[in-house]
Amino acid sequence: MGDWKVRKLGAALGAEITGGSLANAGAREIDLIKSWLAEHHVIFFPGQAISVEEHVELGKHFGELEDHPNLKNPFTQHPYIFELAATQGGVADEWHTDITFQEEPSIMSILHMVKCPEIGGDTMWTNLYQAYEEMSVPLQTLCEGITALHDALPHSRPDKMAIHPVVRIHPETGRKLLYVNEHFTRRIVEMSAGESEVLLKYLTEWVKNPRFTVRYQWTPGTIAMWDNRCTQHFVVNDFEGERVIQRVTVMGDQVDSAREPMTEPWVRSGYHGATSRHDKQLRQFLKGQKI
Ligand SMILES: O=C(O)CCC(=O)C(=O)O
Ligand SMILES: [Fe+2]
To answer: What predicted TM-score, i.e. pTM, was given to this entire model?
Structure first.
């Protein structure tokens, strides 16, 4: 309960919310959080410092929680808490939407900033609705008709893969958004390797446009929540010393597209040349899918 106050942090996304406690949040808080997330996409609650148990309980209000599929919890030993500690090399300093190499990537995360440096180690988020909406119509149209292969190579599991539409429809708002990220997206399925490389390079740079982003300077005890379907995030790796986050991750949902892909996957038949190696991963995934 509380007398909550909302302060917008950026034109594109983000709000800081104060005046109440998240420990033992009830139906009123959960409804409020859902509406704040729909409006601001990433929200911050400074000065909360909830316990691990309260953190997990809070997460359970939003859906089933996920045991992180690839990374182990070095400290907490709690099955639902994923921990990243900078001193263990854990800094997520590449733009990404979490775990898009899964068929159903997580819908939202709740992060507890346990320890952070006084200066540096900010996190940035970007608004993927805006990234889509500000593209030209020809590029929007192209992106709506193609899909992309994502993999868990950054977690040393390139065999873990999923294909998602390049333009996703958010299941709650019905709005279109650009759904490729530098960290996990490997290949446009319907294009040649060379074309895919050029387009992915453009799109993954485009989402970083400062106009689409917000940057948050942390204090210990802050809780952050983000809608993982319509945002990407990035940690600024400009600090020394300890920075420890604990995250609870809410299980995923189906990734819906605006329309069917405009053509079949780009897999060449007949003679395989020296360039065939660029198609190997895609070919392997499609074989596994029996397409
Ligand atoms: O450390 C952070 O600020 C965010 C880390 C991250 O990428 C995540 O928890 O998904
Ligand atoms: Fe992340």
So the answer is: 0.94
